[in-house]
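In this supplementary section we document a worked example of the pipeline. Step one takes a protein sequence of length 188 as its only input; no multiple sequence alignment statistics are reported here. Step two produces a three-dimensional model, which step three serialises into structure tokens for compact storage. The input and output of this example are shown verbatim.
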Amino acid sequence: MKLITFGASYTQNSINRQWAHFIGQQLALHIPRVEQVDSLDLNAYDLPLYTIEREAEIGVPEAAHRFVSDLATADLVVVSLAEYNGSYTAGFKNLFDWASRVELKFFGGKPVVVTSTAPGPRGGLTVLQTAADRFPRHGAEVFVGPALPQFNHHFDRTANKLVSEEWQNQLNEALSPLVQKYTSANFG
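The serialised model returned by step three reads:
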């Protein structure tokens, strides 16, 4: 079983990429069938700004096809959403728009953990709620993870771990339904 993670941001040192990968590693520890955890870097999918006119002029770029193809290789997906002004980052929304032109339901019916983190006190909660509502329309079986606030306070980037037992417990509780789906065991 293959698990793909990505942070929905083009930021080079994305805290959301690290958070998504950490969650993927946690799932791999508790779902023995997970044999591979790959982390995508959205910088590998450089795309022009989507418009109907641009699509008519150039077609759907290869990078959008590659993103959808990469997702198709996964059995599980973990997405951590960066929040800019209460919504998706412009880069991720653009990738999302292009991907939907390749295949409207580009998540392909797969289980998708949607989560978020941010330096601020809400942890990207608004964009998390938006994605939890929107992703099923694109073929995701959504499992909602936590919106981790104050990332640098609650997560040790060097040790790659949560420093708060409270947040580890919240993560375990949020992921438990997905773990049970594959193991019929409780998580945490």
